């Protein structure tokens, strides 16, 4: 679902002008499927991981489920949710990193290469995307109803620091040992 999000912006550049009411065919379904994925992953973590190991991801998933759920239910802000899905492109490399760690392949070229790509995609698809979304929300506050603006602002206020902290942890773990 994550690569489909970036493809939608390429094929439908009008999305960058109206993230509230405009969305291409299939975008609503893509966001709805993403809600399902986050719900399933949330339940899986609750059932199979200790809370002290997964509380950050559970919190992250809760915020995403609420924000995306609003977009799905209202058929509004689907474009904004598509932008948010760009963040998940980096998840490919975060998950590959975890797999390589579990396989004890930390001292391999593959791990080192993935670390570099992970860091690059992290900056582009997480930090830059979240900064753009925050800027968009601020610049368009007069066009967004107060309740939706509050949810978006709180969501961004939670996600941005979480991603900065994770970025610091990745830098410390993979580059400043």
UniProtKB/TrEMBL annotation:
- Where are its TM segments located? 55-74, 80-96, 116-135, 147-171
Answer yes or no on keyword Transmembrane. Answer: yes
Location of the protein in the cell: Membrane
Domain TLC positions: 1-177
Write out the GO cellular component annotations: plasma membrane
Q: Which PANTHER family match?
A: CT120 PROTEIN, TLC DOMAIN-CONTAINING PROTEIN 2
Q: Per its record, how is this protein called by name?
A: TLCD2 protein
Say which species the protein is native to. Answer: Melanocharis versteri (Fan-tailed berrypecker)
Gene field: Tlcd2
């Amino acid at each position: 679902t994550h690569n489909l999000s970036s493809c939608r912006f390429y094929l439908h550049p009008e999305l960058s002008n109206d993230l509230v009411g405009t969305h291409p065919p299939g975008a609503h379904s893509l966001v709805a499927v993403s809600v399902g994925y986050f719900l399933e992953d949330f339940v899986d973590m609750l059932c199979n991981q200790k809370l002290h190991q997964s509380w950050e991801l559970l919190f992250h998933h809760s915020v995403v489920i609420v924000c995306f759920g609003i977009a799905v239910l209202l058929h509004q802000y689907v474009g904004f949710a598509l932008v948010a899905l760009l963040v998940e492109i980096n998840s490919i490399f975060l998950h590959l990193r975890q797999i390589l760690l579990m396989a004890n392949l930390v001292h391999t070229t593959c791990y080192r290469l993935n670390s570099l790509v992970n860091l690059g995609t992290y900056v582009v698809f997480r930090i830059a995307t979240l900064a753009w979304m925050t800027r968009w929300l601020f610049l368009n506050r007069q066009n967004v109803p107060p309740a939706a603006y509050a949810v978006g602002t709180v969501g961004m206020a939670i996600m941005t620091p979480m991603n900065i902290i994770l970025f610091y942890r990745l830098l410390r773990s993979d580059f400043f040992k």
